[in-house]
Amino acid sequence: MTSDGVRYVDEVSVRVLGSTTLPSVRIAPISGSFVVQSENGSYSRRTGREVVITAIGNQVEISIDDRNERLASIRFLPEAGSALYLKTHNSNHSYAGELEVQSTSKGLRILNIVPLEDYVASVVGSEYGLDDLEGAKAMAVVARTYALYALENGKELRDHEGFQVYGGLKRATPAARRAAQQTAGQVLEHKGNLIEAVYSASNGGRTASNTIIWGSKPLPYLKSRKDSWDSKSPYASWTWTVSEKELHRALTASFGLKVKDIRILEEAGDGRIESVRLKGNKSSKDVTGTAFRAAVARHFGSKSLRSTLFSANERRGTYTFKGKGFGHGVGLSQWGAHFMALDGKSFSQILDFYYADTQLDNRFGDESSRHARIELPVLTSRSYSKEAKGSPPVQRVSGEMETPKEKRSVFSKKNNSAEKQTENIWKHGKKTTKRKKSKGSKRSGW
Prior knowledge:
With 446 residues, this protein is an alpha+beta fold. It is built from nine helices and 27 strands.
């Protein structure tokens, strides 16, 4: 640690499986043995066998060779070149780096302390399922920037869609590893600061500005612009129909108003819906297009109302939505990046297009190894023990990838309202609040 309070790290801490209640898990080394130790060093043991961990109040109970021990938290450190299996009651996972297990009132809390470039490779494999190297390299820079920006702003990284999907070793395919390795340490900056590197699957032929989607302060590198490459995506146009009764019922459940009618209030210059009025018997409620879409997707799935770039028509008790794109449309389009790569564009050209007025910078200087060190503010008083860690065996990396549906989060200080959080369309129970309307073209109804 330096005198100015900066901790130098070559790894990131990611909370994994946090959306699942975990009363108990099993952890084992993929090969060889691992060290099991308590935070304060009072307990340390090396074993090659599976360890059972159970939440008991505010402690974790570990069971090794029929011997039980209760501790405040426990850490698992694999041998160099190995990794860890984590087994729940219904799923198996594998992770590079170390695992730390703590107990909470809701069960076990699990952190994966993983080398940065292993993390980036897994995110690329989880979020970008397309078969081109330059697009994957652009995605690697974006994923790395997104994570480091979050950490610099005091956020906890998680492994689900509300942040960016991190699937552990099984998603770190050879192609994703190449993308991470060939861009190791590179990040996007604006005037020397990390940018909010948000992205989505498809923008429908035009990128969206962060202001229109989230109502946050305009960012010069997240402006709306035409995107001819995204126009080739499979989500360039789509249609979704739903009965009036079903849609009104879903909106009633989400917004606490018995909805009888729906009208579009505002449409942005790029065609995206800014606000929608929900009309009840005696009152009405105005919600943003982002919140409207999130509520619909929570009830009908992510492939229902795929973006806020849509038009709608009601006829004989049925709504028909016709739209473009998949996701919020801000920042990089994964399908657009793919077609740019197929058109011969380099990863840096792809990034220049989607994040104007930004610069590529390597915060690690000339060091290009997967363990390059980064500077982050101190987020914890703990100092982690460092061991040399090699890449896990390639044969254990799955080749399965799928194109993600969405990337939905910015960390702007002005983006903390409950309404903004409804952009996470896979989560339930978010309340929506009314925001001040921004100027835009108006439509009186559908």
